[in-house]
Amino acid sequence: MSSDVPDTPDVPAEEVQPVRIEDEMEQSYIDYAMSVIVGRALPDARDGLKPVQRRILYAMNEMGVTARAGHRKSSSVVGETMGDYHPHGDSAIYDALARMAQDFSLRYPLVDGQGNFGSVDGDPPAAMRYTEARMAPIAEELLADIDKDTVDFESNYDDRLTEPEVLPSKVPNLLVNGASGIAVGMSTKIPPHNLGEVIDAAIHLIDNPDCSVADLIDTPDSDGYVKGPDFPTGASIVNREGLWDAYTEGRGRLRVRADIEIEYDDGGDRLVVTELPYQENKARRIERIAEDVNEGKIEGIRDIRDESDRDGVRVVIECKRGANVDVVKNQLLEHHLENTFSVISLALVDGQPRVLNLKELLEQFVDHRREVVRRRSAFELDEAEDRAHILEGRLVALENVDSVVDIVRDSEDRDAAIEGLQVEYDLSTEQAEHVVRMQLGSLTSMEAGEVEDEYEEVQAEIERLETILADESELLGVIKEELREIKADYADERRTDIIEDAGSVTREDLIAEEEVVVVVTEDDYVKRMALSEFDPQHRGGKGIIGSRPKEGDRVSTVFTASTHDYLLCFTDQGQVYRLKVFELPEMGRTARGTSAVNVIDLDDGEEITAVVNTDDIDSGYLAMATRNGYVKRTAVSAFENVHSGGIRAVSLEAGDALVDVEVTSGDGDLLIGTRRGMTIRFAETDARPMGRSARGVNGIKLQEGDQVAGLVAADPDDDRDLLTVTKHGYGKRTPLGEYRQQSRYGKGLIDIKTDDRNGPVCSINAVSPDDGLVIMSEAGQIMRTRVEEVSEVGRNTKGVVVMAVDDEDRVAGVDVVDNSDDGDEEPPETDEA
Predict the structure, then answer these.
(1) CB 3 within 8 A of CB 307
(2) What does the mean pLDDT of the chain come to?
């Protein structure tokens, strides 16, 4: 069988080398990873550019598309770059070109674009055939002196041309414009900075090479130079800790917050967003805000308008009439207008990726400039010496004009003339050639003077360059002077503010601060309602519906607080829990509430019987009274760490329960009131301080069948009244001075008559005439009135109707509130069933 295919010689077996497949895959992957890391994704620490950016700028420089030239089609620049230097596709090149032209991406754009290069709304650039570009003036500073042997060149991808390994870069571009990129197994994200600040820091480093990173950072406690990133879109950085980590360790997390102005208006306040966080898509952000408003996740907004133009961002957010504009602002900050910028200062150093701190980043630039200026000076010195050598030959010729002319005229040809001049005046070949090429017009006396002047200038230049190369301080002086010139030409004011860290926006920030009524039922349903829903009434009113407990349930506790209060909730079983009021569900007056286990980890059958605001317990003691008449004082420091599962506040004997808790100063009096209307007053020092696990001591000697109803703390000269309210809605107030001090564990004095009309005592409170009251019945009626509505009478009296309750209803609790917001308006007469 014949074939036209030539025979292929067999490969000798000894030339085939077996390779483990895992070793080959590992090495191939490493080669690929390093190719991506070095050749595409990471910037060089010296000029701050990735290869594609460097090649674009070098191609534009070779094309003559500088800042002083006219704009050229972007497709022309992309084609030149792709054809000569970067064979990775036109889209990658054009994306990089467009980004270098975006003033919202680069702090100091390197490309001067003409046409649509995208927007902060995420609009893509127009096709490259429609846009035009040229180098920005500052980009020329990156390429300055590239023709003076300042950097090494390497072959391009097809070995036809050469391209620079790095640009000379008079600008500390890596810090000034930042960088971002994702390589294989690593990424970089360096924020942009203010040019003036970075140059000042670099000059300080040159003068003080042993300075610390802290010396370069400008903080409230130090006089440094770099305040922080300076984003092209402005906005504000709100955490200095993240800045410190980013500059000292090369990694850190910054919180960047939009700048929002509040415009107040009677028809509804508005929020105006004037600056957005860096790399934020404005249009998408507005859409998401609108979605959250429509879904009810953000409340208080009625309209959103984008009024942005070429002069800047202006997003107007109209608030509803009566909405709390600060709460709306905090909601927007938490969900949409504040983001995190993760700094990773990763760059290539000697071809290897390294994470660098601020000082190391500046050192890389300064070392690069030192090498560039040294090589430039050596190049210029060679040129100056060559020029001086030529000028020396011209001067010899000018001094011997006649003889030189005769030698040239008598020579057979040019070579003979050159040889004759060399022999006669000991000139070099280059000098002799130059003299032969001189025109007769250059032999005038005026020309001779100009040559002498130029020779002196060249000699001075040689001396200057030799000094720079011989003296390190002179070389660094040149670097500093050039940096100052760059600062004078291009530096501008900061755009990004550094503000004090106000902490992360928490859920508490999203809740308007207001006084609320908290209702708890025996079956552990809980809710909160705005106190403003209940207008003050004259005493004796029935109140309005405040809760509708389910059948068989009834209200057990009612108290008032601010939504931003942190409370200690004491239960009948002697436990204490910490509660944030804003965590309680806000519901309408007719709502039952939600199960308390969702906010407080109560045991079955456990009820809240006393509440203490943590704002009131900086020091002193907590006095506790139990149903069986025990009293105990414990230092407030014992309650500093109350966890979510609660802690023991008092130990109880079988059949006993914690009834009330009061904050005391340590040198006042305690008053214990019983359900049958007895009250005892004694010095709190009669009850020595005990630990949380103690039971306490006897406070009052109870009659058979009687129980403690409440506890009051008073000063010895307290001019307030004791307000006593009974289960049937009757009450009275009596000056505290009428309750004389006794020894602990006595029977006490009669406070109020508890006959069939009054019923047993429900609560006792120390009040002033200016205070207000919130009274709630077990069936869910709430009445708000003023203390002054309740008559002031003596002890051992029946009192007056405070709240009208139905025959089957009873008063569940009474709480004293600030009455200052009610003004002097007369309470309404009407009641609501």
Answers:
(1) no
(2) 89
